[in-house]
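Both lines are retained for reference:
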Amino acid sequence: MKIVIAGAGAVGTYLARLLSNDNQDVILIDGQEKNLIRVTSELDIMTLLRQPTSIKGLKDAEVGKCDLFIAVTPNESENIACAMLAKQLGARKTVARVDNYEYMKPENAELFKKMGIESLIYPELLAADDIAASARYSWVRQMWEFNNGELLLLSVKMHDTHPIYERGICNQNNLLVGHTLKEIGLEHGHNFHVVAIKRDGDTISPRGDEKILPHDLVFFMTTKENIEEIRHLTGKDEYPSVKNSVMIGGGKLSVRASWKLAQIHDSVKIIESDLQRLEQLQSLVAPKTMLLEGEGYDVDLLNDEGYGSMEALIALTNNDQQNILACVAARRRGIKKTIAQVENLDYFDMADDLDIGTVINKKMIAASHIYRMLLEGDVDNVKMLTIANADVAEIVVKAGAKVTRKLIKDIKFPEGVNIGGMSRDGKSMLVKGMTQLREGDRIVVFCTSNMLRKLDRLFQ
């Protein structure tokens, strides 16, 4: 597949790396030579020094022959303009990055399609959705929703100080740790699936004889009504419900997150040190959001705002290291739910080792949205998991697809692939060995990185 990316910034560079690793034919264009020099020192891809809004530049990039044109420069107007031009020059599909919430309203989608833009991405809005989903429960590391929240994928950390695991042996309170998945199924029923385990930096696609161990990050697929059962089985009953949250940093992501969090939390606060930005925020954030002047790392300020009773701290500044340290400090003070924006992929392992909680990466979230456009099947939702080197996709089963011809237990899925759940006729359920998929079923597939495209043949 031939792909042209306009903009060699953080998102464009990440996409170029991702797609080139997926053996796509990628051309990256940018008007700044320094941006392209940096990229070519890291990646073996074709680059072109051209202004993305130049018709000649787009022709030089052969956008008329491309399957997908992606406009992700820092300038919203430039993205819209070059995506429209690319479509007129013959690009098969186009996507543009925007920063305006109004453009994302459903009633405006048809307008942009008439302009030649199939899809818009607003990374801050997508990231705000992930923040709100993960901020619902203090005991969940990260949560992803499917089928309007009826089907859930949860990641839960197992600690060595876990109340259900002591001195390496099982006791009567040990409900999961130390047991195989087969034993867990026999003992506790089948109201959830363990679709993956991250252990010592590796993501495992577990079988029935796999044991859950301390320090594992376990990924559960379940339905909404069974979430409290997982909470109990993982020994998280003492974790508080999250009803208040404090965000550090008053950037675009905090603005969008304030609107999402206001729907689920009783109290939302934003700490911002820049007075001018603080004034701007008054007309941008959700009503009843409390704005505070100060540094988010000022312990005295946090104490004044009820550090001890704080239930969620969300660090969203432009400094990854400060975000990580803020979450570490919060967890040491007993705050159960912490979320950090971490844009540098090199910091992911450190964030995991420090047990900071949920990690938000806008580049990966934007890439997830774009990646689904590369898949030939009917894919509605793709999540690239920042913490597991894995992807999750919601796929609609087509008539006559290979997966409809056999029971799930008799289908030979590629290594590292797990079918977690599905929705049929609007009802969500877990997929079992005796399940037979039908046309129109919406299934949630968990697979290790770079495996998603290999599933296309099963769903055609």
